């Protein structure tokens, strides 16, 4: 019998599901059991061509619609997503293995927020009138044209919406390639947009590995590439986009600092560290995986952290009581287990976890290392799993310098009751998305993105509009033209 997660076909192009079984089969594995629940096929060159030419053709008419009309469609799509939140959350859980307890509140809901927010902004995308005596200039905010979105595997619904919603609000068309690991959810986003009234071809989904992403990025018809992925992939995609002078948004990895001062509220700081390391089993780009704890509260912090981490419920992700799911794939589990071994070998003190959980699926126990030093591998490289490194510090000046000593710059957080210090420290940290007495909140109203190797551009908020549109300026002369000859 076909599994309920099996999509109708692999791709969604020009308003409908499209299959081409010539493409390499991609098995979809449910991370909680290791069972294959669906198969899709990678896009062949013919499918890529179909998607790009369809999107290119659909974009012009879409851009000519008023912002109000485009916005209404996006907001209708948001309503449909919210109505179907339960089914979409179950699919997200099948796609990623994340527990339903999380997916019910963080995936389709977050996608709907983006559709609603950018739907609301669409009608307000206007230009300026610039008086120059008798003459004047007016500006228009125009679509970029054909955009490509490429997603990572941790938030397949959210990533499709965070890219698709602002792109479409501005009058662009998009071809979106999900990660081969989580190909299911973006298809639902495409289906819902059509149901909400989006013209066929403005949002298309094609499956495939990096090769398909590469074909999309290098196509001369593409005007913009928005990637969520790792830094090495980001460098490749950025370089390929530069060849064609394309616009880019790069949402890449991180190794973000979370700084906890002696005067912090202990339970809130522990809660922040848990949210910043163990949500989605640690598979979150903005995680605060270097937790710097001031020496005065270090042991109290570790004791409380170990106690609360012991309350994590590992189990069937479809059971809403489960609060901690598996790694997305066996491969990712093995990568993370390799980092845990490195932590042990390099002399970090294991506080809790530290191994694969004794159950089916790709579960790793939430793991905390203390006495981590700046040079250890687990303190330098992005792990993308449930491994928290706790480092000690004495002074503010010292911790800021150490926190900034990384190629990454996605996020940063600080816990303290001293607000002057909180703002000063955040002001000195090299990071794009920051938190004071909190961690990992990502409301659509707030810009999201990194500095340094963690990326360029911003998603969400009004900032995203700037990255999916461009300004045309028009000089209007009211009198005669003077010329030298
Ligand atoms: P990858 O960088 O491996 O892949 C990202 C996407 O790019 C995938 O769809 C992948 O396809 C595709 N891709 C790979 N090579 C190319 C290429 N040469 N040209 C075009 N596309 C290509 O990341 P993961 O999927 O492993 O995701 C984890 C990473 O994503 C982490 O580093 C994490 O920090 C980052 N991330 C960043 C976020 C942010 O907003 N800053 C949010 C979430 C994750 P395929 O995998 O199918 O081969």
TrEMBL record:
State the similarity comment: Belongs to the aldehyde dehydrogenase family.
Under which pathway is this protein filed? Amine and polyamine biosynthesis; betaine biosynthesis via choline pathway; betaine from betaine aldehyde: step 1/1
Q: Which PANTHER family does this one have?
A: ALDEHYDE DEHYDROGENASE-RELATED
Give the Cysteine sulfenic acid (-SOH) positions (modified residues). 285
Binding, K(+) 1: 29, 95
Give the cofactor note text: Binds 2 potassium ions per subunit.
Q: Does the keyword Metal-binding apply?
A: yes
- Enzyme kind, highest EC tier: oxidoreductase
Needed cofactors: K(+)
In this protein, the active site sits at 163 (charge relay system), 251, 251 (proton acceptor), 285 (nucleophile), 459 (charge relay system)
- Give the protein's recorded name: Betaine aldehyde dehydrogenase
Q: Which annotated residues bind K(+) 2?
A: 452, 455
Q: What is the species of this protein?
A: Phaeobacter inhibens
Q: Where along the chain is NAD(+) bound?
A: 151-153, 177-180, 253, 285, 382
Q: Which reaction(s) does the protein catalyse, per the Swiss-Prot or TrEMBL entry?
A: betaine aldehyde + NAD(+) + H2O = glycine betaine + NADH + 2 H(+)
A single Gene Ontology molecular function, please? betaine-aldehyde dehydrogenase (NAD+) activity
Q: Which residues form the Aldehyde dehydrogenase domain?
A: 20-474
How does it associate, per the subunit comment? Answer: Dimer of dimers.
Q: Keywords, A to Z?
A: Metal-binding, NAD, NADP, Oxidation, Oxidoreductase, Potassium
InterPro entries on file: Ald_DH/histidinol_DH, Ald_DH_C, Ald_DH_CS_CYS, Ald_DH_CS_GLU, Ald_DH_N, Aldehyde_DH_dom, BADH
EC number(s) on file: 1.2.1.8
Q: What does this protein do?
A: Involved in the biosynthesis of the osmoprotectant glycine betaine. Catalyzes the irreversible oxidation of betaine aldehyde to the corresponding acid.
- Which lineage ranks, top first, belong to the organism behind this chain? Bacteria, Pseudomonadati, Pseudomonadota, Alphaproteobacteria, Rhodobacterales
């Amino acid at each position: 019998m076909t599994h309920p997660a099996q999509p109708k076909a692999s791709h969604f192009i020009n308003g409908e599901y499209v299959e081409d079984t010539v493409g390499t089969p991609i098995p979809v594995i449910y991370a909680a059991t290791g069972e294959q629940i669906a198969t899709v096929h990678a896009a062949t060159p013919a499918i890529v061509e179909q998607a790009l030419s369809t999107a290119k053709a659909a974009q012009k008419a879409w851009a000519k619609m008023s912002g109000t009309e485009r916005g209404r469609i996006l907001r209708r799509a948001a309503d449909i997503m919210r109505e179907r939140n339960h089914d979409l959350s179950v699919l997200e859980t099948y796609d990623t293995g994340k527990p339903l307890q999380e997916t019910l509140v963080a995936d389709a809901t977050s996608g709907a927020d983006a559709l609603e927010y950018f739907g609301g902004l669409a009608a307000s995308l206007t230009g300026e009138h610039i008086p120059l005596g008798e003459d004047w200039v007016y500006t228009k905010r125009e679509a970029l044209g054909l955009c490509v979105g490429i997603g990572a595997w941790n938030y397949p619904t959210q990533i499709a919406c965070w890219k698709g919603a602002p792109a479409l609000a501005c009058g662009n068309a998009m071809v979106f390639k999900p990660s081969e690991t989580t190909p299911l959810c973006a298809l639902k986003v495409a289906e819902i947009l059509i149901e909400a009234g989006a013209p066929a071809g403005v949002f298309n989904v094609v499956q495939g590995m990096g090769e398909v992403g590469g074909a999309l990025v290098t196509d001369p018809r593409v005007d913009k590439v928005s990637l969520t992925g790792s830094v090495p992939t980001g460098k490749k995609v950025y370089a390929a986009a530069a060849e064609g002078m394309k616009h880019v948004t790069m949402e890449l990895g991180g190794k973000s600092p979370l700084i906890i001062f002696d005067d912090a509220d202990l339970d809130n700081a522990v809660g922040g560290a848990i949210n910043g390391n163990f949500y989605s089993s640690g598979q979150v780009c903005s995680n605060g995986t270097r937790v710097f704890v001031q020496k005065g509260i270090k042991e109290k912090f570790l004791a409380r952290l170990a106690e609360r981490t012991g309350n994590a419920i590992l189990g069937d992700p479809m059971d809403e009581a489960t609060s901690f799911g598996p790694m997305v794939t066996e491969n990712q589990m093995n990568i993370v287990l390799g980092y845990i071994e490195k932590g042990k070998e390099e002399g970090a003190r294991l506080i809790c976890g530290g191994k694969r959980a004794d159950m089916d699926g790709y579960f790793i126990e939430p793991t905390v290392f203390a006495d981590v030093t700046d040079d250890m591998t687990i303190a330098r490289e992005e792990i993308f799993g449930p491994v928290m490194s706790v480092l000690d510090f004495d002074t503010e000046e010292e911790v800021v310098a150490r926190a900034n000593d990384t190629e990454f710059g996605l996020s940063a957080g600080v816990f303290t009751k001293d607000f002057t210090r909180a703002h000063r420290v955040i002001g000195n940290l090299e990071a794009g998305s920051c938190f004071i007495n909190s961690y990992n909140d990502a409301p659509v109203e707030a810009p999201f993105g990194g500095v340094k190797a963690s990326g360029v551009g911003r998603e969400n908020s009004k900032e995203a509009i700037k990255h999916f549109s461009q300004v045309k300026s028009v000089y209007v002369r009211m009198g005669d033209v003077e010329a030298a000859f």
